[in-house]
Design a protein that fits this description.
Layout: H1 11-42, H2 46-57, E1 61-62, H3 63-70, H4 74-86, E2 90-94, E3 102-106, H5 108-132, H6 136-147
Antiparallel strand pairs: 1-3, 2-3
Length: 151
């Protein structure tokens, strides 16, 4: 017979445990819904859109810089950029100064994909704003802070 899990008697600990679970659950649900919408409208996931936007904002970004920008491992970024190259959304080119490095740039189709997805993201953000109301700003600030923690 499985041991019954004891309920935490300290309400602060229970709230702390629940907060982490709720953050994980919310992030998962938002990612799934965001991916569904972005795939339908532009053929890319939200993670891929994040990479496209980073390259849009910083043309000539290296894969190492993109990994740091997105908080991802370089191996994950290498695989993602490979898929974006195969889809014709970005290109890798030799770095103008570092002979071993490659830089990333958007293709015309990559720029068009971002343009198609901007209304989708704006709509998603409007829905979140309506859902959260006055808590939207503080929630956004708290998540921005958490995204950079620790460090």
């Amino acid at each position: 017979m499985a041991a019954r899990r004891e309920r935490c008697q300290d309400p602060r600990m229970a709230a702390d445990e629940r907060l982490f679970f709720l953050l994980q659950s919310a992030a998962h649900r938002l990612r799934v819904e965001g991916d569904r919408r972005c795939l339908a409208a532009g053929g890319v996931t939200t993670a891929q859109l994040g990479a496209l936007l980073a390259v849009y904002d910083q043309p000539g970004l290296t894969q190492r810089e993109l990994a740091a920008e997105l908080g991802q491992r370089e191996s994950a970024i290498t695989a993602m950029t490979g898929r974006l190259i195969d889809a014709g959304l970005i290109v890798r080119q030799p770095h103008p100064e570092q002979h071993r490095a490659l830089v990333l740039d958007l293709t015309a189709e990559g720029t068009a994909t971002i343009a198609r997805l901007r209304p989708v993201i704006e709509s998603f953000n409007r829905e979140l704003h309506a859902l959260l109301g006055d808590a939207f700003g503080p929630t956004s600030e708290a998540l921005r802070y958490l995204a950079g923690w620790p460090g």
